[in-house]
């Protein structure tokens, strides 16, 4: 039991209040610092990749522009002749001198392109009949016996119908003094008649990817350029060219576009990826978080030392304070355990002269419990008496009102004609009156309440000369349950006097009863005059008001039927039950009664 006394609990509370925040702050600081480093690293990497993608986009746009505008450029400074015109001549001649002249005319254009871009190794034009013209730098040129008509890159370029084709990275065997490079090619068509003129190819060195070398942390990360198949075309460390990315990164490429970046952390490696606009390439960056965390290992140890030191200090303070605070309280608990009588009324302080907070606690607790006990007893007694008086007053109101109306009906019929119907009415009235004044219990079986309604309707059908049709549709399982008596008959009475009495022709009243989960749902429906929307709202507002009584047996001037039935249900069962009203003018009224299934 020592483990559960107040001293131990207070000690544990103080420990938790002091040490737990230290742990939380330390862990939170460490995680926040780690998160900040990750976010900054991710931000710098994302920015670097974004800049690299933009750099690649500019270069590729430049290559695309060169290949698109090539045909429109003039091959002669004095006489206007475009590259398209020279290619058409080249396709229609086999004269070596004329081919030499065409090459000379195009030399200036090609040299300007070579001089304007430092990453182009060579420019090559291939005609549909196998002839070619080449302009290379650094001693590169096509082999004299090379025919491109059946090479796969040539066929793929033609198949793209004028769109830029990006070749594979590697050493091209058909180029003299070739180094590792990448080719871009496009099929050329005459702008006037769309005649196929040949294929234009740019052979670019790997320096085209120099934009990827802008790595902010080369010791911690590596940048790659991969195609849509996940094959690495270029890497800043130059060691993984030709290999494939991890399968999860390859599958993620399908969901990456040029406007968003894909980020994932797996096996302490952060990977950031973005696609190059308009091309099947993606720039990928891998950052080693493990090596990154090694850079601030000192901060981690410092946080740990501070947390441990603070925890030890607060541990000693918690023990001292718990012992100081709980010592007088422990004495009080020992005294209270000696009391064998009612713990709330007869707790007597052992130290009656003690005037500090503990002494006040002795006396005030004893006084408070006595007052609470007295208050609870008086409050419940008064409440029970009030509820009983209210229930009896409500029943008396309903019974007296109904008896008055029924006797008036019997008197009217007796004055007009002497018939056996009076016998039926008086017997039904007697049964109803005995049921109303029954005092054995407030609750009756549903079947008894329904019999009471049938006796009432027998009287009313005689009174109204079968003008009213009555239907009773209650499930058998409902009939055996219990309910508060005199709930349904006042609603039927209300339907007759306010709904059907002013209706021309015959009318009908029906009562249905069903079980719905833990409730009994009765519906009293008539096809009488109904009520306007304003009347329905006024009645709903009346039902929402709590019952008000002037005195026992007296009532306010409110609707006896609906209001009193609702008040009795609320008083007996609680606020979750009662009546709800639906009505339309000249269509009738439906009253729903909800009570618990008992």
UniProtKB/TrEMBL annotation:
Q: Which SUPFAM superfamilies match?
A: ATPase domain of HSP90 chaperone/DNA topoisomerase II/histidine kinase
Tell me which InterPro entries the record gives: Bact_2-comp_sensor_kinase, dCache_1, HATPase_C_sf, HATPase_dom, Sig_transdc_His_kin_internal
Kinase is among the record's keywords: yes
Which part of the chain is the Histidine kinase/HSP90-like ATPase domain? 484-596
> Which residues are listed as membrane-spanning?
302-326
What Gene3D superfamilies does the record point to? 6.10.340.10, Histidine kinase-like ATPase, C-terminal domain (3.30.565.10)
* Protein keywords: Cell membrane, Kinase, Membrane, Transferase, Transmembrane, Transmembrane helix
Q: Which residues form the Signal transduction histidine kinase internal region domain?
A: 390-468
Q: Which GO terms describe its molecular function?
A: kinase activity
Which membrane topology term applies here?
A: Multi-pass membrane protein
Q: Where is the Cache domain?
A: 55-284
Under Pfam families, the record lists: dCache_1 (PF02743), HATPase_c (PF02518), His_kinase (PF06580)
For this entry, the protein name equals: Histidine kinase
Q: Which organism encodes this protein?
A: Paenibacillus silvae
Which lineage?
Bacteria, Bacillati, Bacillota, Bacilli, Bacillales
